[in-house]
Amino acid sequence: MTARLTRLRDRMAETGTDLLALGPGAHMQWLLGFHPHADERPCLLLVGPKGAAFLMPKLNADSAAEFTSLPMHRWSDDEGPSAALAASLAAVGGEGARSVALDETMRLDFGLLLLDQLPGAARTFCDDTVGRLRMSKDAEEWATLKAEAAIADAALKTAWAEMRPGMTESQVADIIKASFAASGAKALFTIIGAGRNGAFPHHATGETVLREGDAVVMDVGGTKSGMSSDITRMAVVGQAPEGYAEVHAVVEAAVQAAMAAARPGVKAHVVDDAARGVITAAGYGDYFLHRTGHGLGVEIHEPPYLTSVSETVLEEGAVFSIEPGIYLPDRFGIRLEEIVYLTKDGPQILSSLPRDVRVVGR
């Protein structure tokens, strides 16, 4: 915690940020290793030139104090938060802040409460401070993400061994959830898209029955140790549908092109351009419906985002997905997703599963 807070204050100095305010959520979780109970009562972590302190509802203060020694300026329901907020600002040296970075995920009323006390302050968000620091994972974070990926790999293997024609998408998802649980983890999402449902990138897993000849998109992720996993692989039930092999080969080539483009110092859109170029050249450009990737860490989706317009420069230590896809309406969809750790020599894949289609149900 102390090291990350020091890094954050150094980054604030570099960016000319006088005051930073975080609400309970992923930024605070990354910075402190916990976040207090989140409800409608204003709760803020303020970081300024004199240090850090909490604006804290009394109702939650004692439980939060079990996890942090940072000072808390407490307020009760009958008092309201205004006086405690003024004291918090004074404690961290933020009363005269001219540049304030707000947690982009905090409640709007929390942010407005703070800005009302700082008339004239310029407002930014945390993408260039906490967000920038979160993009570069340290060795401990990398090891945790690698372990999370192994749990997701095992869940897919378990599902493949049990999948049969006649099962529903939900039944397959239940197998995956049970595998996560058996590893002491929690499944965060289980997208199972059978047949034509695979053409919906974020299909809502339901009661569609798996049938012979279905291609099945399997996008799953979970968490055990405070970080996330995310992986997409393909299965076919018995015989693959007509045209499947050609489309799978194009998506695989797009993955490889994106991998080759991903290097420290490269802008994120270059990786997206590489994957999209392969798919467009093969005639499927209109069927690649989303960005090539997103960062992964405390959250499943976090910076950097690999889009066609992103100017974010990828740095060594970044962790992100490479997941091009082709979605053919009323036929099938194919997405292949790797989570990679960017080293000085290029991306290192966290999963140990091959990207070949897995034949199930035999």
Q: How many β-strand runs?
A: 17
The helix count comes to: 10
**CA(first)-CA(last) distance:** 51 Å
Largest sheet: 6 strands, mixed
Low-pLDDT sequence parts: none
CATH topology-level fold name of the largest domain: Creatine Amidinohydrolase
CATH second-level architecture of the largest domain: Alpha-Beta Complex
What is the mean pLDDT?
A: 96
| Strand proportion | 15-25%
Order of helices and strands: HEHEEHEHEHEHHHEEEHHEEEEEEEE
Spatial order of strands in the largest sheet: 4-3-2-1-5-6
Give the C-alpha Rg. Answer: 23 Å
CATH homologous superfamily placement of the largest domain: Creatinase/methionine aminopeptidase superfamily
CATH class of the largest domain: Alpha Beta
Which bin fits the share of residues in helices? 25-40%
What structural class do the secondary elements suggest? alpha/beta
Described by the principal axes of the CA atoms, the overall outline is elongated
Number of domains: 2
Question: Could you describe the 3D structure shown?
Answer:
There is one protein chain. By secondary structure, this protein is α/β, with parallel strands linked by helices. It folds into two domains: 2-135, 3-Layer(aba) Sandwich (Creatine Amidinohydrolase, Chain A, domain 1); 139-360, Creatine Amidinohydrolase (Alpha-Beta Complex), CATH 3.90.230.10. Helices cover 34% and strands 24% of the residues. The chain is built from ten helices and 17 strands. It has helices at residues 2-15, 26-32, 58-64, 82-92, 108-116, 130-135, 139-162, 169-182, 244-261, 268-281, and strands at residues 19-22, 44-48, 51-57, 72-75, 99-102, 122-125, 186-194, 215-223, 231-237, 293-295, 302-306, 319-322, 325-328, 332-335, 338-343, 346-349, 358-360. A six-stranded mixed sheet has the order 4-3-2-1-5-6. A four-stranded mixed sheet has the order 7-8-9-17, with helices on one face. Helix 7 crosses helix 8 and helix 9 packs antiparallel against helix 10. The protein is elongated, with a radius of gyration of 23 Å. The model has no long low-confidence stretch (mean pLDDT 96).
